[in-house]
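Support request from a user on the community tier.

User writes: "When I paste my structure tokens into the form, the page sometimes reloads and wipes my input. The last time it worked, I copied everything first. Here is what I submitted, just in case something in the input itself triggers the reload:"
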């Protein structure tokens, strides 16, 4: 599957989960794990961080980019009570922009490098691929939460 198809498919799957009932949004896939709402808010925030990285890697020569502490974001931004509609709008807008940039730069600039503060040297292609795989990973967690008996 090519990157554009992967990004489109995970986008459509994710958007359906923003419409879940309150009782489904509080479900979790395991003890001490984030609930569905927390995962959705995290996906929107993570997409915005990855979008910023992608734009920097396209625009700047070999930037150094800092990681972010997802647990600190979850706690300090209060994901459990964060307005889900805001996260949905952010997720959709950012994902559309990421798809646009992937269509334009995935091949032509894919080898552009950056230095991640925690994982070292990475490429633009790595970061586009991370967007899709990160989303898929969390979709699986949501599905586990919703199917848990």
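"...and here is what came back when it finally went through:"
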């Amino acid at each position: 599957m090519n990157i554009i198809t992967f990004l489109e498919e995970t986008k459509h799957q994710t958007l359906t989960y923003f419409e879940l009932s309150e009782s489904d949004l509080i479900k979790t896939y395991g003890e001490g794990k984030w609930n569905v709402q927390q995962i959705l808010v995290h996906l929107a925030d993570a997409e915005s961080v990855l979008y910023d990285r992608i734009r920097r890697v396209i625009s700047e020569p070999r930037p150094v980019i800092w990681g972010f502490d997802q647990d600190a974001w979850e706690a300090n931004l209060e994901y459990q009570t964060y307005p889900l509609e805001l996260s949905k709008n952010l997720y959709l807008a950012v994902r559309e922009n990421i798809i646009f940039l992937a269509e334009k730069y995935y091949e032509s600039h894919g080898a552009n490098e950056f230095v991640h503060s925690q994982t070292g040297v990475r490429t633009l292609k790595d970061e586009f691929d991370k967007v899709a795989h990160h989303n898929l990973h969390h979709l699986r967690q949501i599905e586990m939460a919703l199917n848990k008996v």
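Agent notes: The reload is a front-end session timeout and is unrelated to the input. The first strand starts at residue 64 and ends at 65. The beta strands are 64-65, 113-116, 120-123. Escalated to web team.
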